[in-house]
Write a structure and sequence with these properties.
CATH class of the largest domain: Alpha Beta
Radius of gyration: 17 Å
Shape: globular
Distance between the termini: 44 Å
Strand order of the largest sheet: 2-1-3-4-5-6
CATH architecture of the largest domain: 3-Layer(aba) Sandwich
Largest sheet: 6 strands, parallel
Order of helices and strands: EHEHEHEHEHEHHHHH
CATH topology of the largest domain: Rossmann fold
Number of helices: 10
Number of strands: 6
Length: about 220
């Protein structure tokens, strides 16, 4: 069995993915590149990489919810989040999901390879720009931190529906993607709007972007 670390990359920006590929290939085996969260879940199950490097703002299913799916079905796969988001709520949610590393994209050149090495040794890696206290807070939540980041007031299924609505998917298409009835999608949309006190699709989209559920600009 090869000692070379096998890495799966999930990022929907082609140039970013190509840059990361060049960065990793001298030392690691890149087994696949996927561009959305649902493909990540499928590829992780099929390819069984040692590590998945995952962007948060992935289409169809955001990186954190996708990572949670991966960890539930493939607990041995270690996950490193690679993102532009340095806000505490994203970091906290990521470690609650069970990731092993958190690297900021602006530091990718100097930190990603190091992060993979550390995580493969069973350690945690966090970009120095993200304070260690955030990880401590995530692992041992003792305070009454704000739960408004990353749409934490919504269930994972509600976040899935919200993201797909924000990405412009029609109700019928959302029902097909999630393998549920149109009635169920409508029910979730109504509950989401009531929960978030929003009235229009435009408001839902704006909220989804600010919560990091989609990278639409």
């Amino acid at each position: 069995m090869s000692d070379i670390c096998r890495v799966l990359l999930a990022d929907d920006h082609v140039l970013v993915a190509e840059g990361i590929q060049k960065l990793l290939e001298p030392e690691f085996e890149l087994v696949g590149i996927v561009a959305d969260g649902r493909s990540l879940v499928a590829a992780a199950a099929k390819l069984q990489p040692d590590i998945a490097v995952v962007d948060i703002s992935l289409p169809l299913l955001n990186g954190l919810d996708a990572s949670q799916h991966v960890k539930k079905t493939n607990p041995n796969i270690k996950i490193i989040i690679l993102t532009m988001h340095s806000e505490p709520n994203f970091v906290t949610q990521a470690f609650r999901v069970g990731v092993s590393g958190y690297v900021l994209k602006q530091s990718v050149g100097s930190e990603l390879v190091q992060a993979i090495r550390e995580v493969m040794k069973g350690r945690t890696f966090v970009s120095p720009m993200v304070t260690q206290s955030l990880v401590d807070q995530a692992v041992n939540p003792s305070g009454s931190g704000e739960a408004n980041g990353f749409a934490q007031t919504l269930s994972s299924r509600q976040r899935e529906v919200l993201q797909l609505v924000a990405e412009g998917k029609a109700t019928k298409e959302i029902a097909s993607i999630l393998n549920v009835s149109i009635k169920t999608v409508e029910f979730h949309k109504t509950r989401i709007m009531k929960e978030l006190r929003l009235r229009t699709a435009a408001e839902l989209t704006k909220y989804a972007i600010s919560a990091g559920l989609t990278s639409i600009h």
